[in-house]
Amino acid sequence: MTNAPNLVPLYAEIFLLIATSALLLIDMFLPAAKRSITYALSLLTLAGCALLTVGDFNAGTTVYTFHNMFVSDPMSQLLKLFSYGAVALTLIYSRAYATDRNMLSGNLGGEFYVLALFALLGQMIMISANNFLIIYLGLELMSLSLYALIALRRDNAKATEAAMKYFILGALASGFMLYGISMLYGASGTLDLGELRVALENGKTNGTIMVFGLVFLVAGLAFKLGVVPFHMWVPDVYQGSPTAVTLLLGGAPKLAAFAITLRLLGEGLLPMAHDWQQMLLVLAVMSLAIGNFTAIAQTNLKRMLAYSTIAQMGFVLLGLLSGTVDAPNNTLNAAGAATAYGASMYYVITYVFTTLGTFGVIMLLARNGFEAEELADFKGLGKRSPIFALVMTLFMFSLAGVPPLMGFMAKYSVLASVLATGQLWLTIAAVLFSLIGAFYYLRVVKMMWFDEPTDSNALVVHGDMRVVLALNGVLVLALGAMPEGILAACATAITKTLAS
After folding, report:
1. How many helices and strands in the chain, by DSSP H and E?
2. Rg (CA), the chain
């Protein structure tokens, strides 16, 4: 038994797998009227995962297992903790919405919760993967769960169309990644990210094949992040999916996509930084431009937020591309990398929790037979419900980067990292695109407070959603005014991860 793998780093994943499988069996014997038991057990499962992960994060150690294919380090632990929180918020916000649309009815109505937890398991595997094949396995587990969730409303033509689009384009992106991985494996002879980096540093790879493999790999990553020109699926899938599933799609998976991008580019392919930095630069600028300009023309709020996501992911790429700069002696600046990667990580966390709250408000206004997806549906919300109009205002201001909210500090951190590399033109371009993007966020605020309401129906808000949504808004304000804790945690996690 001396060769038995160390299972301690996987306790959270093992617990989630066992608990979700048990949840699936329990739910089969529950009548639709008692679906709240499945909901409560899902939240308890997430709490259990958090308890198993927080101890490892406090210890601050890095542990490799399964022949270095799986790694538990501060970055993975921190991202997992935020992933649990993101999924928990999603389930809380989605409960009433899913119930009204019969997504939780029938003998297998709990499949919404089960598939959400299996998608989370895939994300956790992606976050801790240190091997090309493990990254791909986690990615497919997450993607297959999301495909099924998007098509969960089988009688809804829009949802079915969105699932087909996401499935076909997702398969294409997976093909890109697999082809890139095969080329990198052929050029280096290894699937292990650590061994790949050593081979690159020692010049034991075929440079031409490595560059071609890198291009296909970046294309696959760009699809998962939803950046231009691999963004075609984002607006259609966001709009066509049930809002509860859109929330699952646009929340925690972004944390996992950030993790594998950093693992692959910032760790395994770090010696090729000069090559992939140029690719990310083009992707970032195009995403900022097309995302912000196209969002202005949208009248559907979910579609507008989809293009907003494209622009926001452009900012995440700015942090990643400014993370490894050539020092005067042509070596990589590890300190600059840790600062920029930490800023990028803080940005994606900020984006996820602000977006969760935004879609939470959309589902708050929705009711059976009415989706509240159009911008016009938010007219006069300040008169109907001043508290939730204020909460939505905080989310819009944060996404626009208005101080002192989280979004402002996130943008400032990324821009400071870009400026530290001497790319003044890129910093100015990012600021200008942000100013353009502020228009469509402020338009929503104007409609809520200055337009007359078009809907006189009273808002029906469940107690748990009311409390959590209000807390979400308060946190966006409080953590923007006092961001030191999360920024320091991100920077420390990145520093320790890179050092290992």
Report:
1. 20, 2
2. 22
CA geometry: angle at 76 spanning 271 and 194, to 5°?
A: 30
Q: Identify the three-state secondary structure at position 231.
A: coil
Helix ranges (H only) for 129-232 are 132-150, 157-188, 193-201, 207-225
State how far the Cα of 313 lies from the Cα of 350, in Å rounded to an integer.
Answer: 12
Query: 3-class DSSP state for residue 71?
Result: strand
Please count the other Cβ atoms lying within 10 Å of the Cβ belonging to residue 113: 26
CB 11 within 8 A of CB 119: no
Instruction: Give the Cα-Cα-Cα angle 456, 462, 464 (nearest 5 degrees).
Output: 140
Tell me phi and psi for residue 167, to 5 degrees.
-65, -45
Q: Is 223 exposed, middle or buried (0-12, 13-18, 19+ CB in 10 A)?
A: buried
For residue 417, how far is the Cα from the chain centroid?
A: 21
At 391 the three-state DSSP class reads: helix
Token reading at 368:
């059976």
How far is residue 32's CA from residue 110's CA, in Å, rounded to a whole number? 9
pLDDT in tens, the chain (500 residues): 456 678 888 899 999 999 999 998 888 887 777 778 888 899 999 999 999 998 888 887 888 988 889 998 899 999 999 999 999 999 988 888 777 776 665 555 678 889 999 999 999 999 999 999 999 999 999 999 998 888 887 777 888 888 888 888 888 888 899 999 999 999 888 898 988 988 888 888 888 899 999 999 999 999 988 898 888 888 888 888 888 888 888 888 999 999 999 999 888 888 888 888 889 999 999 999 999 999 998 888 889 999 999 999 999 999 888 876 554 443 456 567 778 898 899 999 999 989 998 988 888 887 666 677 888 888 888 888 888 889 899 999 999 988 888 889 999 999 998 888 888 899 999 999 999 989 999 999 998 888 887 776 667 666 677 888 888 888 888 888 888 888 888 888 888 887 77
Query: What are the b/e assignments for 322-359, b being 16+ CB within 10 Å?
Result: bbbbeeeeeeebeebbbbbbbbbbbbbbbbbbbbbbbb
Termini Cα distance of the chain = 27
* Residue 404 preceded by cis peptide, ω within 30: yes
Per-domain residue ranges of the chain: 8-499
CA torsion sign for 299, 303, 304, 305 is positive
Structure tokens at 48: 């259990």
State the residue for tokens 């097309």: 290
* Separation in Å, CA 111 to CA 103, 163, 434: 9, 16, 39
Q: Are 220 and 282 in contact (CB under 8 A)?
A: no
- Phi then psi dihedrals of residue 380, to 5 deg: 70, 15
What are the helix (H) ranges across 29-156? 35-59, 74-100, 111-128, 132-150
